[in-house]
Amino acid sequence: MKVLIVYDTVSPMKLTAKVAETIGEYLKEKGIEVDTSYIKDVDHAAVKNYDCLIVGAPTMYFKASSGIMQFLNSLSNEDFSGKLAAAFDTQIQTWLSGNATKGIENKLKKLGFKIAAPPLIAYVAGKINQMQLKDGELEKTKNWAQEIAEVFLKQH
Q: What is the pTM of this model?
């Protein structure tokens, strides 16, 4: 049972990385083997060796960061049929913010992944270069990771 968490993060506070690490820590507590990797450090050829891929990015200009979409597009020659996946993003809570998870999920489905849980949206607040996760968002992240763990452990 192996899970790969791949994320992009763009702010100096590395908020998307914090969410990815929180997910990874929770899954490890449940006995699941987890590797967490920033997109620039991912071994693209090794992605197929995982049973589950969790992908996260900040919402940038109403969609996922270009880095995470480039990563997903680089996987297009692989077949991931039957493997699990999930998406998460970090974003400012406003009706105008858009959503990174829609594009990530659509790409994961096209690659053949089965979506294990509805996407996680972790909200951030604050001034530019001083953003922080809103209160309760890491707890929400752990609850989401629990949902992923339950689905994953049922299948393996």
A: 0.92
